[in-house]
């Protein structure tokens, strides 16, 4: 595995399976009497959040703490960042504090990439969502959830049919999911109005549809993406009602899903817009599980990136017996 | 007798000659077999060097006044001289904006004092580049700086009625409007070329049509009012097609392309390194092919650097927060050699036309871009195309470091630059 | 590291006899199999635990519970090597509470793996006792840990490697000792 996790494209199929398999083991810790492992004792994980996301931050924090890492939460609000301190200066501060890993959420696409490669700090960088680029741990937890439900928690996702519905253009979740699901062998269909699909999407490893009704009967997973209402004022779609009518996951569409198909959403949901309450809370919904699985997957990522020595730093001559 | 005796130089890549420069002009040119002898002249061994008329840049950001931390007239003209330039046109987007006779004269005087090359200020089209009302174009034209090119470069004159008036107004003193073609609504928040790469990187796309739509409108306006239009930094294959069409109709349009748009593609953005963030954005390999052919055919008239220095803090940050622009003066000729000469698209005579003669004509600057013949002003660049060199930070004399060519191997090096018979560069080093 | 060459110290028969002896010792020491639970430490401790469980159940006439315990997450030497892949931890139904847990591993060396195993067990439950069975004790302990059942005590030098091969994984049963290459 790479030292950083910046994009789902960084993961080979072996890497991805290793994360998912490790996450399966990590999920046992949640059920154990002692929900804590000593694995990352003495290591420091910084949650560097330039954008509000309580859910993702708490998930990473719980993951790091279950592995006994020291966690420092550094949020842009109320810090010097809001006073105009640059990403670079923040990075240099974290480097001076000895951060072993920096979990970064940033509104600018590529900010984690810069943090990892500009030479500002030495720790591992984990992308917790950057602008409209990627959110690789969300994709990992989505695949983890799909694999549990559709493949008994083992192996890849070959043959699994996934529809991702909604604002693909602005969605980092969609980008990461398309890449990771393709790596794991699933077949993905993006469903959205053409205004919410990026120019260049034709080159992605997935198919495209503008018609949810023609897709919904032929999928094992339907994932609704959050639609932000401010997109309406930018003329991406005419009205919430029209969006909901054409692309919303409502009761009628829910009923047309094949047996055993599951409903997913990365949250936070706009109930009544991209997903109805019946779909969100129904038997097919695995949305609450996604949250729990998020902790296991992030534990796996932290373990794999942080627990061992980077390959180049190992001096085999000094290795004692194991 | 005195001056400089250049031995064995190849004018425009032709047969070797000896050339004597004296009193600011080319005094004599003769075949080496005639063993030209000049007492008291300093000799430059020019065997194998290409002699070009001193290069003229239509598009330079010198940042003074206002951002002297990024570049000054002095530092920028040093970079120009090392790049083989004897004249540059200083863009108007300074602070204060060069929208009055006072500011353009200040820049013009600073250029005179710096002395590394001639500085011709470009005047703003609209007051403060705000696109609301015309700046005093006539006053700038009549000033000591004798402004002939007007541009809001960095911003597009997007209001069609304002553009029409500007094109009409400059006819009275033979001026030209140099348009930065960028439809503002289509490029709100845009970060890079819209296409396969932007889709993957999640950076907001900058569609080619945002450039092409403005060029199409402006060539029609220029035709309608019978004025001259110059199109800055053409970057797309579609723009080339529109220019080809406009020229075939006899519309008085000229166009420039930057060295970086001839060489680099939007693939560079995959690094998220803001060194590759530029306006207009780097495009695709297909666009590059089209631009190179257009420059070869003359559909694009000139190479202009769009030399845009930025301080480290404006570039050592996340892509979205970074400023647009890259350095260009010092490596322009090498990039042109690599993309146009080594690929057999241009001869050295063509290079002289695209980088000196034609820009001088568009900018209406006397004494630059002249033929290399006896009696002409001694503005000359000597260039060694046989060298290959690794671009490193230490050779940059600009106050900024934002060259996209860092770490690349480029061919050729400017060995000497003469401004009115005096060297500004000798043996690849600045003089003075 | 070492190879399949090297000096043979246990052959198939030796290995089988050693396990049989350990099975009897476990029963003798614990006065039967009541409350016994075997936990194999991956990789080869798992197969050894399964074989011991077979032997014990054959003697006793009924099955005894066997599980596997991955101790990776409790190791203190993780930073010396690239991150290791985890193997499943499988605790038999009923858990460890009040059981006599016999940890099974192939080679006892520094004792660090067993220290990690004791910590891992502590996080899962509270057995009434924990005992340790190993096929080979090669010495060089770095912690105050000793085995309750040993197949063979094998004095070694630090630069030697002990390799346990088992039929289930390696296609043959044997134990060899060799010089560590590349030293």
Report on this structure:
The complex is a heterotrimer of chains A (322), B (432) and C (183). Chain A is an alpha/beta fold. Chain A has two domains: 8-135 and 291-316, Aspartate/ornithine carbamoyltransferase (Rossmann fold, 3-Layer(aba) Sandwich); 136-290, Rossmann fold. Helix content of chain A is 39%, strand content 14%. Chain A has a five-stranded parallel β-sheet, covered by helices on one side. The two termini of chain A are 23 Å apart. In chain B, strands 1, 2, 3, 4, 5, 16, 17, 18 and 19 form a nine-stranded mixed β-sheet that branches. In chain B, strands 9-10-13-14-15 form a five-stranded parallel β-sheet. A three-stranded parallel β-sheet of chain B has the order 6-7-8. Chain B has two domains: 4-50 and 375-430, Urease, subunit C, domain 1 (Roll); 54-363, Alpha-Beta Barrel (TIM Barrel), CATH 3.20.20.140. Chain B has helices at residues 73-82, 101-114, 137-142, 160-169, 196-201, 208-225, 237-248, 259-263, 285-297, 332-341, 348-363, and strands spanning 4-11, 16-22, 25-30, 42-45, 50-53, 55-60, 85-90, 118-121, 149-150, 176-179, 192-193, 205-206, 229-231, 253-257, 302-303, 380-390, 409-419, 422-426, 429-430. Chain B has eleven helices and 19 strands. With 432 residues, chain B is an alpha/beta fold. Chain C is of the alpha/beta class and 183 residues long. Chain C has a five-stranded parallel β-sheet, with helices on both faces. In chain C, strands 1-8-7 form a three-stranded antiparallel β-sheet. Chain C has one domain: Rossmann fold. In chain C, helix 1 packs across helix 2 (44-60). The longest helix of chain C is centred in the N-terminal third of the chain and has 18 residues, at 12-29. The termini of chain C are close together. The chains are: A alpha/beta (322), B alpha/beta (432), C alpha/beta (183). The A-C interface holds A 1, 18, 21-22, 24-25, 28, 32-34, 36-39, 67, 303-311, 314, 316-317, 319-322 and C 70, 73-74, 77-89, 109-110, 112-113, 119, 122-125, 140, 142, 158, 182-183.
């Amino acid at each position: 595995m790479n030292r950083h996790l910046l994009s789902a494209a960084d993961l080979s199929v072996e890497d991805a399976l290793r994360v998912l398999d490790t996450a399966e083991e990590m999920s046992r810790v949640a059920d154990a009497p002692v929900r804590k492992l000593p694995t990352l004792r003495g290591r420091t994980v910084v949650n560097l959040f330039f954008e509000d996301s309580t859910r993702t931050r708490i998930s990473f924090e719980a993951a790091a703490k279950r592995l006994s890492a020291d966690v420092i939460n550094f949020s842009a609000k109320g810090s010097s960042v809001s006073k105009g301190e640059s990403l670079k200066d923040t990075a240099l501060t974290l480097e001076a504090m000895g951060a072993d890993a920096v979990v970064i959420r940033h509104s600018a696409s590529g900010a984690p990439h810069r943090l990892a490669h500009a030479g500002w700090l030495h720790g591992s960088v984990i992308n917790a969502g950057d602008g409209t680029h990627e959110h690789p741990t969300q994709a990992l937890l989505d695949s983890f959830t799909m694999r549990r439900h559709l493949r008994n928690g083992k192996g890849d996702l070959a043959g699994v049919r996934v529809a991702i519905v909604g604002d693909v253009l602005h969605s980092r979740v969609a980008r990461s999911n398309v890449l990771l699901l393709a790596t794991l062998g699933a077949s993905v269909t993006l469903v959205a109005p053409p205004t919410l699909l990026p120019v260049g999407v034709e080159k992605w490893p997935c198919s495209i549809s503008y018609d949810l009704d023609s897709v919904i009967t032929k999928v094992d997973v339907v994932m609704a993406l959050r639609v932000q209402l401010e997109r309406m004022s930018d003329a991406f779609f005419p009205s919430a009602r029209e969006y909901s009518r054409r692309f919303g996951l409502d009761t009628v569409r829910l009923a047309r899903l094949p047996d055993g198909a599951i409903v997913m959403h990365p949250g936070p949901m706009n109930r009544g817009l991209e997903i109805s309450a019946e779909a969100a809370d129904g038997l097919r919904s695995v949305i609450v599980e996604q949250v729990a699985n998020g902790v296991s997957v992030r534990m796996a990522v932290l373990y794999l990136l942080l627990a061992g020595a980077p390959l180049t730093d190992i001096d085999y001559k000094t290795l004692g017996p194991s | 007798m005195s001056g400089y005796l250049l031995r064995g130089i190849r004018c425009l890549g032709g047969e070797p000659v000896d050339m004597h420069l004296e009193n600011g002009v080319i005094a004599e040119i003769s075949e080496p077999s005639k063993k030209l002898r000049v007492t008291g002249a300093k000799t430059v061994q020019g065997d194998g060097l290409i002699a070009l008329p001193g290069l003229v840049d239509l598009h330079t950001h010198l940042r003074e006044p206002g951002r002297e931390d990024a570049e000054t007239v002095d530092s920028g003209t040093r970079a120009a001289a090392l790049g083989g330039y004897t004249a540059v046109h200083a863009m108007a987007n300074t602070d204060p904006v060069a929208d009055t006779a006072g500011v353009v004269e200040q820049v013009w005087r600073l250029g005179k004092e710096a002395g590394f090359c001639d500085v011709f200020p470009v005047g703003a089209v609209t007051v403060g580049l705000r696109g609301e009302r015309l700046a005093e174009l006539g006053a700038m034209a009549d000033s000591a700086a004798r402004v002939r090119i007007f541009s809001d470069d960095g911003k597009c004159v997007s209001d069609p009625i304002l553009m029409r008036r500007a094109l009409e107004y400059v006819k009275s003193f033979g001026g030209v409007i140099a348009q930065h073609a960028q439809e503002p609504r289509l490029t709100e928040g845009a970060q890079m070329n819209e296409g396969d790469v932007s889709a993957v990187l999640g950076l907001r796309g900058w569609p080619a049509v945002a450039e092409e739509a403005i060029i199409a409108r402006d060539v029609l306006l220029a035709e309608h009012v019978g004025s001259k239009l110059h199109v800055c930094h053409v970057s797309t294959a579609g723009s080339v097609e529109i220019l080809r069409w406009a020229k075939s109709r006899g519309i008085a349009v000229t166009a420039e392309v930057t060295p970086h748009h001839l060489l680099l593609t939007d693939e560079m953005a995959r690094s998220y390194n803001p060194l590759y963030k530029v306006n207009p954005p780097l495009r695709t390999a297909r666009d590059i092919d089209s631009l190179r052919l257009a420059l070869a055919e003359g559909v694009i008239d000139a190479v202009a650097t769009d030399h845009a220095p930025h301080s480290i803090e404006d570039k050592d940050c996340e892509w979205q927060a970074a400023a647009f622009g890259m350095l260009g003066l010092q490596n322009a000729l090498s990039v042109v050699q690599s993309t146009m000469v080594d690929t057999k698209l241009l001869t050295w005579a063509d290079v002289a036309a695209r980088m000196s003669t034609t820009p001088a004509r568009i900018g209406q600057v006397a004494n630059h871009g002249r033929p290399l013949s006896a009696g002409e002003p001694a503005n000359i660049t000597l260039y060694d195309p046989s060298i290959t060199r690794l671009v490193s930070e230490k050779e940059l004399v600009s106050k900024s470091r934002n060259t996209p060519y860092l770490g690349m191997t480029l061919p050729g090096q400017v060995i000497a630059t003469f401004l009115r018979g005096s060297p500004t560069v000798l043996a690849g080093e600045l003089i003075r | 590291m070492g190879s399949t060459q090297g000096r043979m110290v246990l052959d198939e028969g030796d290995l089988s006899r050693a396990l049989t002896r350990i099975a009897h010792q476990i029963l003798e020491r614990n006065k039967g199999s009541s409350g016994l639970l075997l936990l194999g430490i991956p990789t080869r401790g798992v197969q050894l635990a399964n074989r011991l469980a077979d032997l014990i159940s054959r003697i006793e006439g009924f099955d005894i519970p066997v599980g596997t315990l991955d101790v990776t997450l409790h190791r203190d030497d993780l930073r010396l090597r690239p991150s290791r892949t985890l193997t499943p931890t499988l605790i038999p139904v009923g858990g460890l509470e009040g059981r006599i847990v016999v940890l099974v591993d192939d080679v006892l060396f520094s004792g660090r793996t067993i220290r990690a195993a004791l910590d891992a067990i502590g996080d899962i439950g509270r057995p009434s006792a924990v005992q340790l069975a190993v096929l080979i004790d090669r010495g060089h302990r770095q912690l105050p840990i000793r085995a309750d059942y040993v197949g063979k005590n094998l004095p070694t030098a630090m630069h030697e490697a002990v390799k346990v091969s088992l039929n289930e994984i390696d296609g043959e049963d044997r134990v060899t000792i060799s010089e560590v290459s590349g030293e």
